[in-house]
Amino acid sequence: MSEPSTICVVCGTEIHPFRDAPHYANAYEKVRKKSPCCSATCAAEFNPDQHWLPAELPPTLEGKAHDRLLVRTRNRLIVGEPPRAVIRDALLGGIPSSILRLHLAEIVAAREQHVEKQETQQIKRGILSFLFGRGHAALESTDEGFDPRRLAEAHADLESWDRAAARARNQ
Ligand SMILES: [Zn+2]
Q1: Separation of 83 CA from ligand 1 center, angstroms?
Q2: Could you state, in order of their start, the residue ranges of all structural domains in the chain?
């Protein structure tokens, strides 16, 4: 194996492990050490939402830890957390992108069912409250199905992850 080198999470430049000291955007990042930057300029441009890919990809989870995180990921998506944030957490936690891609379609279907069930319940409650004189207020649904744009963002993140993994393999 060659010397461990790392890349700037902002511009992708290689940071030599001995020659260059990595820069960090702030004290928190300095302690976390997951998002090194090559220069003060890059550190100033660092945005955790945009530069979320870590310089070094985490080891792949296996066995029970893998299953637990996958279940948690599924549950978070079903209750309506933003797909991009949930998928990023799963990737950073060590679930392979191929597994997430495989499960995403099933999770979306489960989410749609969950929303439909809630809507049915809300309509029932609405009818009851209408019959008993409390108006239509309960008919308003606050829960929505997946916005296809937000799912597309999550898929784009899976692809960025695969590109970073391919780069790491070729190093
Ligand atoms: Zn840089």
Answers
A1: 28
A2: 1-56, 57-171
Query: Measured in angstroms, how far is the CA atom of residue 92 from the centroid of ligand 1?
Result: 21
pLDDT digits (tens, 9 = 90+) for 38-93: 999 999 999 998 999 988 899 999 999 999 999 999 999 988 888 999 999 999 99
Measured in Å, residue 8 CA sits from the centre of ligand 1 at 5
Average pLDDT, the chain: 85
Question: How far apart are the CA of 38 and the centre of ligand 1, in A?
Answer: 4
| Residue 55 alpha carbon to ligand 1 centre in Å | 11
SS (H, E, C) 103-144: HHHHHHHHHHHHHHHHHHHHHHHHHHHHHCCCCCHHHCCCCC
Q: Copy the structure tokens of residue 32.
A: 């976390």
pTM for the predicted model, two decimal places: 0.76
